[in-house]
Amino acid sequence: MSDLPVVPAADVPADAVLLDVREDEEWEAGHAEGALHIPMGEIPQRLSELPEGELHVVCRAGGRSMRVAQWLQQNGYDVVNVDGGMGAWADAGRPLVTDSGAEPYVK
Asked: What pLDDT sits at residue 25?
């Protein structure tokens, strides 16, 4: 296995495919617009939902996304871990949305 690429949340390209592996209640509190949501524990069963190409994997702080990214990399996926997770995303002023229209926040 090669070293896993890591990028600060502030430097994730605007056109990146963001895979959010947080739990449902975390996602519902606030997420990046256009992100793909598959909770960490569901990744192995939902691989068919992953698009081809590079995936930027994110969680709340970076730990779960690192584990998922390593696992995906071992299974042949092109992945980048988002360092600092959604907390760093919000701290960097990157936009958050909710599906409900409520004020988004990182849970």
From this structure: 97
